[in-house]
Sequence to fold (669 residues):
Amino acid sequence: MASGIDELRQQYRRMLEIRRFEEEAARAYAMGKIGGFLHLYIGQEAIAVGVASATREGDYFFQTYRDHGIALALGMTLEAGMAELFGKDTGCSRGLGGSMHFFDPEVGFYGGWGIVGGHVAVAAGAAFRSKYVGDERVTVCFFGEGATNIGGFHEGLSLAGLWKLPIVFICENNQYAMGTPMSRTSPLEDLTLKAQGYGMVGDRFEGHDVSVVKDRVKTAVDRARKGEGPTFIEIETYRFRGHSMSDPAKYRSRNELEERKKKDPIAIVRQRLLEAGVKEQALLELEGEVDDAVAACVKHADEAPPAEESVMWSSVHAPTMAVPADRLPRGVVRVEEGSDA
Amino acid sequence: MREIRYREAVREAMLEEMERDERVFLMGEEVGHYQGAYKVSEGLLARFGEKRVIDTPIAEAGFAGIGVGAAMTGLRPIIEFMTWNFSFVAFDQIISNAAKASQMSGGRVPCPIVFRGPNGAAKQVASQHSHSVDPFYTNIPGLWVVMPSTPRDAKGLLKTAIREDNPVIFLEGETLYNVKGEVPDVEADEAIPFGKARVAREGDGCTIVAWGAPYYVVLDAAERLRQEHGLECEVVDPRTLRPLDIETIVESVKKTHRCVVVHEHWPYGGPGAEIVDQVQREAFDWLDAPIERVAALDVPMPYASNLETLVLPNVDRVIEAVKRAAYL
Ligand SMILES: Cc1ncc(C[n+]2csc(CCOP(=O)(O)OP(=O)(O)O)c2C)c(N)n1
Fold:
């Protein structure tokens, strides 16, 4: 039981870190320190943290542009995340990727992807690798319910199902694809029916309780690890903010939002910890620590050096045209062999 | 003339053409209830109803294909890509099907469809959301490719596009939607023909060809060149990238003897290179200097704003290029 409480406390900390990180990101965005698209994970934290608890080191993870939560849940540092949002060299993608393209292979995170459905087959490719080399790594691929309509999703599932790849597909059904409720994009309510057609086991549940998420996902991860094939999991959830910072979310009522906020996954864990005997004071301390850690990551991001031009060039291969440098159109930089510029 | 925004110009063109022809409908993600991701289709759902302003799931290949089939059988779809970056998912529908229907059928089955949406970099939307797709589509016989820079051109060219009997790639400027400009009254019903460039600024010092967001960079650069160097540049906006109105460009070069091409797409190939190729052959004897190009740097778009600024064509790079071409 003690270990259960320790785990829950750890999960609470992670979920709160994600929540505070996202809140700080929203603030920095309003101040112009972050640009582009910013999709927040607020409201969905139990899923990322539950999945992280259900998997182990060496597993692979792929996510959409709504990618801060899972990266942090896997143990990527707050500094690497915030610095990325600020476009800094110390960011997880060295300032080249931004909010939508977090990457941290050290924790198994293979990206934040921006094209809906585009990463599903890519994730299946990582699972293909596990089968090819014969190790036990499992891949987890996240996407929204909106993505289940696009070809990339179906082709990814089609192959994963056919070849019984060790992968768990997690559909975070937060009810809306941008401004469109699922009732206007899918004739099905139960999305696991789509996976049935690809010969896959389906599971479906509410994702407000991190312990439930962990247990149910663990079953699917174990199945994949044993070589028994992929699982499609639809997890019902809700995003408390708009689709991105530029979306005022006028398509849903305040009432609906308030109702959903009653199932705030963070409040649920907190309550459970109190019920399990953890003292209010201890939680306040933990919360203070999280606040400090997040404040520190913002400070780090503020002070870190900007993204490097040399990385912009060296991270792109084959930029060189096979003509003498003085004949290149202006603005094309020729990369000399062996140079890192 | 009244002034309206580029966004409103695009909307007016759709509204007027939908009123004019019942076969015209608008289909895409968030075009209806949400009023368009960039509010371009605001009010159209209320005006025309769900039959003609159709929200789709996220399924570009699917709804592009629906558009092609509907067009081949007599409707006149306007297919909106939320941005052109997402058209890659539907590439096959556009290139293998829309562009080929007429030719494969020996001219018996035209495909009157408009694919439209915002093109090019916005601000810090990074690698997968910053493409200038001009080079991909201009390479394809069977597709008209249009990219208006001003509200007036946006409206007039879109009206022509909707009336055209074969597929049109209509590239709007993602950062141009708020640009204001003069547009003729509704009664004028102005439809601007394809294949006609527009001379935006006259001068005899150097020809600068530009379209899309860089068009405004070039206008600023031309002003500074006048003030700082007394050089009067002639700015030509091709407006239609396929076919190109090379005559207007060449005529200008024969007057200025110098040419700089400025574009947001990558430097390898594309309409930028095509213009250089045609100008050097058509106006070889009139050129006093090698033709210069200012392009996006040859890398996927980085997120960080300090790097994005480096990648995109800017006033300083244009001025440098013009100074090289003019031996200043
Ligand atoms: C192919 C493609 N089409 C359109 C978009 C624009 N877009 C980005 S997110 C999004 C909605 C996605 O909704 P969902 O899959 O439910 O995920 P959520 O954002 O709710 O997590 C859309 C339409 C895109 N990125 N890629």
Notes: The radius of gyration of chain B is 20 Å. Residues 198-325 of chain B form a domain with the Rossmann fold fold (CATH 3.40.50.920). Chain B has a mean pLDDT of 98.
